[in-house]
Amino acid sequence: MTETIWRCDQVRAGQLYNRMIFDTKAEAEQFMQRMQQMEPDQMISIEAIDASRVWN
Length: 56
Fold this sequence. Notes:
It is a single chain. By secondary structure, the chain is α+β, with helices and mostly antiparallel strands. It is built from one helix and three strands. It has one helix at 25-38, and strands at residues 4-12, 15-22, 43-50.
């Protein structure tokens, strides 16, 4: 398990619509690009998270 995970949040109309967790930044960016093409009205952000904050 890696020490850093990548959280990708999709927000529509100011509300959290979906949250995905990825092992690498590249995976998160690929997901973000695909979603922006399919649903351009969503705001998508990627954030590095320390894995210990999510799992013990």
